[in-house]
TrEMBL record:
Enzyme class: ligase
Protein's name in the database: Carbamoyl phosphate synthase small chain
InterPro entries named in the record: Anth_synth/Amidotransfase, CarbamoylP_synth_ssu, CarbamoylP_synth_ssu_N, CarbP_synth_ssu_N_sf, Class_I_gatase-like, CPSase_GATase1, GATASE
Function: Small subunit of the glutamine-dependent carbamoyl phosphate synthetase (CPSase). CPSase catalyzes the formation of carbamoyl phosphate from the ammonia moiety of glutamine, carbonate, and phosphate donated by ATP, constituting the first step of 2 biosynthetic pathways, one leading to arginine and/or urea and the other to pyrimidine nucleotides. The small subunit (glutamine amidotransferase) binds and cleaves glutamine to supply the large subunit with the substrate ammonia.
Name of the gene: carA
Entry-linked PANTHER family: CARBAMOYL-PHOSPHATE SYNTHASE SMALL CHAIN, MULTIFUNCTIONAL TRYPTOPHAN BIOSYNTHESIS PROTEIN-RELATED
Protein species of origin: Pullulanibacillus camelliae
GO molecular function annotations of the record: ATP binding; carbamoyl-phosphate synthase (glutamine-hydrolyzing) activity
Amino acid sequence: MKRQLVLENGEIFVGEGFGANTVRDGEVVFNTGMTGYQEILSDPSYCDQIVTMTYPLIGNYGINRDDFESIFPAVSGLIVKEATDMPSHWRSESTLHDMLREKGIAGLAGIDTRRLTKIIREHGTLKGRLCDADEAPVEVVAELRNTQWACDQVSRVSTKMPYEIPGNGPRVVLMDFGMKKGILREINRLGCDVRVVPYNTTEKEILQLHPDGIVLSNGPGDPKDVPEAVETVNKLLGKVPLFGICLGHQLLALASGADTVKMRFGHRGANHPVKDLQTGRFYMTSQNHGYAVNPESLAQTELEVTHIAINDQSIEGLRHKRYPAFSVQFHPEATPGPEDSQQLFSRFLQDVEQFRKVGVQYA
């Protein structure tokens, strides 16, 4: 079946539809990863986004039961140059097409993804719609231009009820803003007793769980759309060690008095180089974010920069000068992707152990 992508600037791409036969709107972004399409499609941080894969061949190793980052994908659509319908891999259990159809995700193949990526790089992220080829583009463009960006993504992808993953180690509260399963896996792998809580859990409710440390997860959208989370993080500073990842990094910055800004087209891929300013080492990282911390806003805060992106010098890591709290914009749990920065979870546990020695004060 013929399907088209219509962008709010009037650009049109016509190709072959696959996956679910649905009409979906979203923010059109691109990801530079060569692999990892299953994890990308199930990453809650892609809520309301139509993802374009810059690597030309997608679906070649199929879909398996274990590599999902969430049970219910929130992505709006997938755009590829070529979608393989005959995957070859020993773990493959279904095709990309079958997975998209089962999860209600629209796909578009056979278009010039290089040209689309260049448009996004030039104009920034754009609203788009995946729809049947016979829909009138002029009407679609008018509707897209009159559509306001959604601001409730975090509330839609966060867990609705708290739950526990038992362990014999320190108790860690994981605030779920759209958490990837990989984050939970890494914390649990270190033996922690994990309590996952919704995004709007209050400071009082969190402290009643008597945590030894708190992890602020990744998630979709603008961090300023969840002011209740910013307030909670602000109240937790100094009471329990904090570790923020991606959106959690931005929330820690806002809670400490800094500001965030929307990027032109963001960072999405598994090949983003980052420099650790403390050690001088370089890491290859996996990233997925459309917002960043404004460097100029740090002057009046107690935050210091620990990591920067090599490609554009944007802030990739922060540390609080007075409290045991740090964060990174990239994904240290990255799967698939580089594992260079997984040691950050161990560093967080070191903060937890050191804080426990002096006695936790929840006042």
